[in-house]
Structure formats: C-alpha cells, structure tokens
Specification:
The protein has 2 helices and 4 strands. The chain is an alpha+beta fold. It has a 4-stranded mixed β-sheet, covered by helices on one side.
Length: 89
C-alpha cells in the first residue's frame, strides 16, 4: 500500500530548555506501509470551502491516535529510544 496521512512528528530544537517541538506533517508511505518521506514543515489545515477545511482538520485530528514519529528518522519515538539504548531491532 502506498499513500499518505497526517502524523505528529517530534523535532529536536537544540535548546536545552525546550528540547523538542511537535508538529503535524504529511507522511508518505511505500510498500508495506513503511514511512518513506514527510513534509519539511508542519502543515496547517486548509480548504477551498468550509467543508474541505472541516475534512482536512478531521484528518489532522486522526494524527493524535497514532504513535508520534521522530522527525530525523520517521520511526516511532519508542523505537528510536530503544535503538539508542541498544534494545531496538
């Protein structure tokens, strides 16, 4: 399956007081639903009609039900943490 959806991504800021920023990005998938790309910048809901805007916003809300992805790797945050600790695949 290939396609896209909105996902929340966590980006490192390099700031010790606020080390992360979260945003909603378009995420693209290749074979086996594997993440193979995402937008550089977070997305804003938009549409050429109120109905389209509502539909886009509803799609973005679904991002809150999926695991947060790491901006650098596209992998779920838990998988990135496990790999850093030597427990990942």
């Amino acid at each position: 399956m290939s396609g896209w959806n909105y996902r929340i991504m966590r980006m490192e800021t390099g700031d010790k007081d606020e080390p992360y920023i979260f945003g909603i990005h378009e995420v693209y998938y290749g074979k086996g639903e594997r993440v193979n790309g995402w937008t550089q910048n977070p997305m804003d809901p938009h549409g050429s009609t109120m109905k389209e805007l509502r539909a886009d916003f509803a799609m973005m809300k679904k991002a809150f039900t999926a695991p947060v992805l790491d901006y650098k790797t596209g992998k779920p945050i838990a998988a990135v943490r496990e790999a850093r600790e030597g427990r990942g695949k």
